[in-house]
Specification:
The chain is α/β, with parallel strands linked by helices. Helix 2 packs across helix 19 and helix 18 packs antiparallel against helix 19. The chain folds into two domains: about 210 residues, no CATH class; about 260 residues, tm_1862 like domain (pyruvate-formate lyase- activating enzyme, Alpha-Beta Horseshoe). The N and C termini lie far apart (about 50 Å). It has a seven-stranded mixed sheet, with helices on both faces. It has a seven-stranded parallel sheet with strand order 10-13-14-15-16-17-20. About 0% of the residues have low confidence. InterPro entries: BchE-like, Elp3/MiaA/NifB-like_rSAM, Methyltransferase_Class_B, rSAM, rSAM_horseshoe, rSAM_sf.
């Protein structure tokens, strides 16, 4: 009999506006495996698509669910993992036949209450009596916002329809919320009590609806080590490795305090895995047939000044893995990037945010455009791809300051550089729990609004969206991030073909913003490059 089903995510929500403008072919993203399938089938996509759901960053199972699954399996719990609920709903229905006691929802990728409400409603439609537990960042963020109700001038009214615990409208039918950023041990105890038919009301760090209101149990200090739990990769089911790519965490937390960021630190301290532990983990992962690893750190190993030593350790271990990670530019200033490439790094992600000095200062980025240009240039020279995220509309932003960001994007890369440059542009979001959301900051910048709709003394959200669409049309030689490209197929192209494919893809996406989709043009254009 099955004890628990863990759900990592619902689907593919994103706040990126540029991502929504990317090219589609036959109703699917124009990633290389879909384009090749279309060329092989006279302009139609015929399933199965060769290279789909394998060897790309997008298909790697999400780490939040893997952490929970490893914890439960290690305690002798019979558990199964659903990585993406709506695309795996058929499998979820099959698992229900084993009469699981509990569904565990991780809210790491839940963006709002409606997403959770819809998910729980769908689960209840096929399993009305199953016990549902939800925990993770969205739950904890909702609790922190609720705690600000007594803060003078702090807006908790606008978030009330998007976050939990603030009103009773569209209340997700969840039996138990775990209100902690390190609540794995609470989950374990809750499952044990439910299996034995006992009440969970005595657990700390939880909340439930009593029919009239939410009831919160006392807060507590965790009973476990402050470091995050390790993952027993040897004990993970084979299905988790079939994509050829996995997510790994080399450090936890983020010490930076960017003004726009609502990163929830909670009571879990920042932590870097010891290098020996990390290498051992990667060795076990490689033994399971994995080729690609995406480190999901906010800044690889918290930007420690030992990157060269890390690369040497990877090489000494003979890992033969290709990997990517987020880095702060300052972490790469003194690094040997040729060594980084030899150690398997094929892509660096970077939150550049803006190429305007004043905007960066206001964001508290502690960076400058010259450093970004210098580091990105060196990465591209070394043959390491670089994908960068940008924000338009932070208080102080003007059309002129964003033009400097667009100029920066257009300057990357030069034709001789072997690395590929890509980007994603997000509108500024006025998010609860971010420093800029505080009343004093709002007053300083004449900032009003909430989330996607806002205005301040130099820009408003509608103008920011227009800026993104304008930039999308203007940028020529690079393209938005397409994280679903099959990496093996892309590696099989010559550098010239890769660059031409990326340039054509973006050119076609711009064309079809204003004109009807032209299948014959798409087939003919891609065929000239890929056939």
């Amino acid at each position: 009999m099955l004890d628990a089903i863990v759900i990592s995510d619902t689907g593919n929500d994103t706040y990126s506006v540029s991502s929504l403008l990317r090219l589609q072919v036959e109703g699917r993203p124009a990633i290389i495996q879909n384009v090749r399938n279309m060329l092989e089938n006279d302009g139609r996509i015929v399933d199965p698509v060769k290279g789909e759901n394998e060897n790309n960053w997008h298909c790697a199972p999400k780490l939040n669910g893997i952490v929970l699954l490893s914890r439960l399996l290690g305690e002798g719990v019979n558990a199964e993992l659903i990585d993406s609920y709506y695309s795996e709903r058929h499998r979820f229905l099959q698992l229900l036949r084993d009469n699981p006691k509990m569904v565990v929802i991780s809210t790491t990728f839940i963006l709002n209450k409606k997403s959770l409400y819809d998910l729980v409603r769908d689960i209840r439609s096929v399993a009305p009596d199953i016990y549902i537990v939800a925990g993770g960042p969205f739950v904890y963020s909702s609790y922190l916002i609720m705690q600000r109700r007594g803060s003078s001038g702090y807006d908790v009214t606008s978030p009330s329809d998007d976050y939990l615990f603030l009103n009773d409208d569209n209340r997700p039918d969840v039996d138990l919320y775990i209100v902690s950023m390190k609540g794995e041990w609470v989950l374990s105890k809750a499952l044990g009590l439910i299996k034995s038919g006992k009440a969970v009301s005595g657990l700390p760090d939880v909340a439930h609806w009593d029919g009239r209101r939410y009831v919160f149990s006392p807060r507590s200090v965790s009973e476990v080590d402050p470091d995050d739990p390790s993952i027993d990769w040897d004990g993970m089911p084979d299905d988790l490795f079939k994509s050829g790519a996995v997510n790994v965490q080399a450090s936890y937390g983020c010490p930076c305090k960017c003004e726009f960021c609502n990163f929830v630190r909670g009571d879990r301290p920042a932590h870097v895995k010891p290098l020996g532990v990390l290498v051992s983990e990667l060795t076990r992962i490689a033994a399971r047939g994995i080729k690609y690893v995406r480190f999901v750190d906010d800044n690889f190993r918290l930007g420690r000044n030992d990157l060269n030593r890390v690369c040497e350790a990877f090489l000494e271990a003979g890992l033969n893995l290709k990997w990517m990670s987020f880095f702060r530019a300052s972490s790469l200033e003194g690094a040997d990037l040729e060594l980084l490439k030899r150690a398997g790094c094929i892509e660096v992600q970077m939150g550049v945010e803006s190429a305007d000095r004043e905007v960066l200062r206001r964001m508290n980025k502690k960076s400058d455009p010259d450093m970004y240009a210098r580091v990105i240039g060196r990465l591209l020279d070394a043959g390491i791809d670089c994908s960068c995220c940008f924000i338009v509309g932070f208080p102080g932003e003007t059309r002129e300051s964003f033009e400097r960001t667009v100029d920066f994007i257009e300057s990357m890369p030069n034709p001789s550089q072997p690395g590929l440059f890509s980007w994603s542009i997000y509108p500024f979001l006025l998010v609860p729990l971010s420093p800029i959301y505080e009343p004093a900051k709002r007053a300083e910048y004449g900032l009003s609004g909430y989330m996607k709709e806002w205005k301040h003394s130099t820009m408003d959200s509608a103008t920011a969206h227009r800026c993104i669409r304008s930039a999308f049309r203007r940028i020529e030689n690079t393209s938005p991030i397409y994280s679903g490209d099959n990496l093996e197929m892309m590696a099989g192209l010559s550098l010239e073909k890769k660059k031409n494919f990326i340039k054509l893809r973006h050119s076609l996406s711009k064309r079809f913003l204003d004109a009807p989709y032209d299948k014959s043009l798409v087939v003919r254009s891609f065929a000239e490059i890929l056939k």
